[in-house]
Write a structure and sequence with these properties.
about 95% helix, single chain, mainly alpha, about 170 residues
Length: about 170
Amino acid sequence: MDILKVATDWVKAELFSTPFFILFGVLFVITSFGFRNLGKTEMAKAYIIPTLVAGVLLMIIGLGLFFTNKSRLSHFPNAYQQDASVFIKSELTRAEATLKEYRTIVFTIIPIIIAICAICIIFFHTPVWRASLITAIAMLVVILLIDGTAYMRVDVYHQQLLSVEKEN
């Protein structure tokens, strides 16, 4: 198995998925402007700032991940050519740490925050609070969906790294 190709393919898949953060961020920003220009009720106007903030945060996440993975793509061939075993070990360590972070943050903390926000909607009756909580849930669901697929890709990549390490 050509681990350099596997690593490069994984990064390319990540480069394909990270723009979805940007896309959803843009959709949130457009929604914010829609509420600003078309919102007539107090509840509709309450969504302006939360959706704008969520959109900007999603775009920042997407851009950060995109440029990080873009630089990784150009770094892989050099690192592999210098020492393949060190490359595999460092990628294994990084993949394991990433999987642990996903399990902790994406699959534990984010669902807990979503549940807390959902419960808080019952107790907060002002439009700004409700709009903020609903927007937070929507943003976290987007993160959960995109990172859920990323977790699967990292897990497959990790398994491939383990099999290559066993071969060596």
